[in-house]
Amino acid sequence: MRAAVNAAPESDMLGLAILVALNVADDFFRARQQESSAHGELNERALRLEQIVDDVLAQIAVKQAVSAS
Known about the structure:
Layout: H1 2-7, H2 13-68
């Protein structure tokens, strides 16, 4: 709020308060979007790692089945 008052000292306080509130809300929504995006990327990476582990375990199972025959 002080930065807004310093930037526009002749503006009314209500207008500055609304501007500050809008800026805070914008910052919040941007941070939430970034967090959501990062969470989605982590889920994708986890799913890829899970698939890799499943593939390796399947290969091991096949090798063991062939060795047991």
